[in-house]
Amino acid sequence: MKLRHDRGQVHIVRRLAALLLEILAVFSLSATAFAMDAVEAELPVTVKGASCMVRLTPLDGAPTPETGEMELKGAGKFTLEFTEPGIYRYELAALPGQRQDVIYDTTVYQITVTVVTGEDGVLRTLISVSAGDEHKADEAVFENKLKPVNPDKPKTGDLSYPALWSAALLLSAAGLIAVLILLSRMTTAKSTKNL
Fold first, then answer.
1. Is there a domain that residue 169 lies in?
2. pLDDT of 80-134, one tens digit each?
3. 66-91 burial by CB neighbour count: b if 16+ within 10 A, else e?
4. For residues 184 and 133, what is the distance between their CA atoms, to the nearest angstrom?
5. Is 98 a member of any domain?
6. How many domains, the chain?
7. How many CB atoms lie within 10 A of CB 47?
8. Are 92 and 45 within 8 A, CB to CB?
9. d(CA 113, CA 37)
10. Kind plus residue range of the DSSP H or E element containing 13
11. 14-46 pLDDT, tens per residue?
12. Per the domain annotation, does 86 fall within a domain?
């Protein structure tokens, strides 16, 4: 069996392939022309008390923040950038520091960023913060506390110095004995004089 090539059929196939390539090119150009601008979301974080490192960890393929860790005391923020709608999850935790006199906050916050396309075609974000057991938090706050200076000995505010008071007591007793001895001698000397 011989295959025959008809020049007309080959020409039609070539025209269809060229048309298909043009259609694909138009769709790829329009897809890039209508690509959404990236949207940034800011996650505020506050560290009260001693400073510490705070880490934001992306979960389930969420976009990685530009800065995933920062040393913080007071208010700060993580900036996240999103290019498409979706629900993105993160974990936010304070890392224990090296200071032995600080009790570091161990709260782990679950951060959910919901990215949607608005009616105007612009991406919008909504940030939800929760701390364990589905407890919703207004913001992520870590409270690091100083340990008591001497937990075995309660502070009473008494700043007396026992050694000083003991020395004063001994000096007073010695002075009293010296006065009594002198009085005794004086009375003895007077009574012998009167005889």
1. no
2. 999 999 999 999 999 888 888 888 999 999 999 999 988 888 898 988 898 876 6
3. eeeebebeeeeebebebeeeeebebe
4. 85
5. yes
6. 1
7. 24
8. yes
9. 17
10. helix 7-33
11. 555 545 545 544 444 334 334 568 898 888 899
12. yes
Residues in the chain, overall count:
195
Residue 96: domain span: 39-146
CA 92 to chain centre: 7
Of the candidates 114, 139, 110, the residue with the CA atom closest to the CA atom of residue 43: 139
Tokens 């138009």 belong to residue: 26
**72: Cβ–Cβ under 8 A, 6 or more apart, which residues?**
45, 47, 51, 52, 53, 54
Q: Residue 70 — φ and ψ, nearest 5°?
A: -150, 145
Q: Considering the entire predicted model, what is its pTM?
A: 0.57
Residue 37, helix vs strand vs coil: coil
Q: Which residue has the tokens 């949207």?
A: 39
